[in-house]
């Protein structure tokens, strides 16, 4: 007799993780929006310093990391939540805010973890299509808010489409959202957004107690392997609620040490953003030269429309055969053939572009 699982296990989708991690041969890994830059030497030294005390539990309150974040962003530490990556905070927010009868609103396609929140809680998910430029349609999202709405998710820049909406539009949107609705502005890629200063959204917190700015050390800081994210909140209520629904010691000691040290190196952040944007400009130009549709990226990845006549799975297979890993748009919610491609190092981007050009080239006529 087979064991029986809860109803919510049947509802929760499987997260579409990128493949290729088990392959040992050198690959061009442009599938997971990771940083191509290794952790800084000072960050590695901070990790090394913690190794001898791994027989002890990590600080359950993440006090030093929250204090450093408070100093960096001028947000009281009591209004800062830490997580085992930003996904941990999102899932905990779903558990704290949602239940059967409640509603969750988000754009689609967007971050693949969002459907898990409603599925796990039994809440109703309301999805809103992106506009013609692959951006959030904030007016359409506003029109879907009801008395049952508990949570609205806005991914800016949006994953997987790389696009961003202006902060003025976000501010106008927040002014119309009822106070009972929590808005999580997911800013995992905000450092790469050149529409405005990445810190400009922080000013919105003081006038919107229902606002949460969700950020991560996984991207520009290059700490994917340690999993540490954080939320800057408009009030102390959400951090308290998150701690109530999560297991203790959710952020490990090495992650806390690495993230705390990484905050002290904003010069490295600027350098990495500069190098990534240079690759963004170069790669997007070359993709357009291949006749492909490329969204206006404000992230460390691009969204590439392949055209309805092309076979997405065939191109994915051809790239993998050539040692290049990217993400298929279909796995990320696209209803037309597309690719999501992380900007890597120049030589990695070159290998991807050469492989893609070879796959797109018309077949040679027999002589």
Please give the CATH class of the largest domain: Alpha Beta
Estimate the global geometry from the Cα principal axes: globular
What is the distance, rounded to the nearest whole angstrom, between the alpha carbons of the first and last residues? 64 Å
Return residue spans where pLDDT drops below 50 for at least 5 consecutive residues.
363-367
CATH topology of the largest domain: Aspartate Aminotransferase, domain 2
Q: Can you give keywords for this protein?
A:
alpha/beta; Aspartate Aminotransferase, domain 1; Aspartate Aminotransferase, domain 2; seven-stranded mixed sheet; four-stranded antiparallel sheet
Topology:
Blueprint: H1 7-11, E1 28-29, H2 41-50, H3 63-73, E2 80-83, H4 86-97, E3 103-108, H5 114-121, E4 124-129, H6 138-143, E5 149-155, H7 167-176, E6 182-186, E7 211-216, E8 229-233, H8 237-245, H9 253-262, H10 266-289, E9 293-294, E10 301-305, H11 312-321, E11 324-325, E12 327-328, E13 338-342, H12 346-360
Parallel strand pairs: 1-11, 3-4, 3-5, 5-6, 6-7
Antiparallel strand pairs: 2-8, 7-8, 9-10, 10-13, 12-13
Summary of the model, kept short:
35% of the residues lie in helices and 16% in strands. It is of the alpha/beta class and 367 residues long.
Written account of the structure:
The protein is an alpha/beta fold. Helices cover 35% and strands 16% of the residues. The protein has twelve helices and 13 strands. The chain has helices spanning 7-11, 41-50, 63-73, 86-97, 114-121, 138-143, 167-176, 237-245, 253-262, 266-289, 312-321, 346-360; strands at 28-29, 80-83, 103-108, 124-129, 149-155, 182-186, 211-216, 229-233, 293-294, 301-305, 324-325, 327-328, 338-342. Strand 9 (293-294) and strand 10 form a beta hairpin. The radius of gyration is 21 Å and the shape is globular.
């Amino acid at each position: 007799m087979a064991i029986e699982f809860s109803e919510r296990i049947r509802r929760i989708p499987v997260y579409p993780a990128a493949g290729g991690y088990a392959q040992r041969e050198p690959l061009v890994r442009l599938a997971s929006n990771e940083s191509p830059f290794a952790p800084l030497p000072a960050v590695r030294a901070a990790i090394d310093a913690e190794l001898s005390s791994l027989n002890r539990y990590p600080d359950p309150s993440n006090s030093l990391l929250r204090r450093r974040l408070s100093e960096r962003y001028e947000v009281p530490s009591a209004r800062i939540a830490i997580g085992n990556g930003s996904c941990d905070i999102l899932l905990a927010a779903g558990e704290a805010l949602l239940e059967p009868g409640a509603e969750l609103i988000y754009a689609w396609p967007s971050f693949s973890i969002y459907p898990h929140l409603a599925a796990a809680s039994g809440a109703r998910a309301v999805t809103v299509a992106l506009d013609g430029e692959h951006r959030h349609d904030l007016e359409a999202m506003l029109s879907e808010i009801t008395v049952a709405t508990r949570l609205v998710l806005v991914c800016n820049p949006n994953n997987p489409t790389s696009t961003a909406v202006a902060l003025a539009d976000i501010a106008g949107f927040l002014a119309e959202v009822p106070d009972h609705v929590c808005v999580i502005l997911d800013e995992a890629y905000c450092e790469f957004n050149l529409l405005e200063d990445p810190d400009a959204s922080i000013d919105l917190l003081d006038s919107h107690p229902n606002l949460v700015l969700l950020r991560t050390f996984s991207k520009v800081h290059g700490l994917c392997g340690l999993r540490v994210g954080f939320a800057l909140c408009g009030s102390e209520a959400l951090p308290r609620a998150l701690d109530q629904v999560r297991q203790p010691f959710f952020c490990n000691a090495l992650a806390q040490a690495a993230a705390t040290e990484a905050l002290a190196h904003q010069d490295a952040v600027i350098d990495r953003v500069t190098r990534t944007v240079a690759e963004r400009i170069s790669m997007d130009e070359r993709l357009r030269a291949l006749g492909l549709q490329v969204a206006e990226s404000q992230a460390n990845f691009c969204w590439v429309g392949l055209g309805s006549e092309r076979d997405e799975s065939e191109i994915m297979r051809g790239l993998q055969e050539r040692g290049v890993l990217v993400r298929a748009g279909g796995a990320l919610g696209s209803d037309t053939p597309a690719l999501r491609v992380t900007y890597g190092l120049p030589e990695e981007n070159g290998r991807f572009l050469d492989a893609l050009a070879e796959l797109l080239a018309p077949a040679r006529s027999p002589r």
